[in-house]
Amino acid sequence: MSGSGAPDDLRVVHELAGLAALVAERHGLYVRWSRGPRTDLGATSSTDELTGVRMPGLSANPLDVEDWWEGRSVELWVARRLYDYAHLPHDKGPGVRPWVLRGRETGRGPDNEPLVVDVEPLCWIGPHVIAEAREAVARQESEWGTLRRSGHWSPPRPRPVPGPGPAPGR
Predict the structure, then answer these.
(1) Residue 123 Cα to chain centre, angstroms
(2) For residues 126 and 16, what is the distance between their CA atoms, to the nearest angstrom?
(3) Is 62 exposed, middle or buried (0-12, 13-18, 19+ CB in 10 A)?
(4) Which of 48, 106, 114, 127 has the most CB within a 10 Å radius?
């Protein structure tokens, strides 16, 4: 599936349907949003951004369709998996883009994301696929937001406690 064997010389999937077909035929696939295999495979480790702790694998998100999805559209499943993290190229800076890999889970990161080792890069996910994913999610009846974090947390405002109300007969 790769080109000349160089870690970043991968084929590019240009259609959501093509990525969904890959997910349907192969199990154990993940999507990773980064600057690519050439950057990631040297250390095969991610770092927790909050604490700086090195984790024992690359953080990635599973693409396998869960049993509870019960025969629904694989395209919609994949669209949803991509949509949830489509903000990362903007947040992480230039050169960050999604790529598909196969690997072995070795643990979980602080956001419960799989940490993957023995990584085999398979393909890049082209920008048109992300646009199609956004469109597929937008067509759904319910509103859905990404897992984007602003980095700023504010405690919820206290709600006013209802008083006893007016006395009867007034």
Answers:
(1) 15
(2) 9
(3) middle
(4) 114
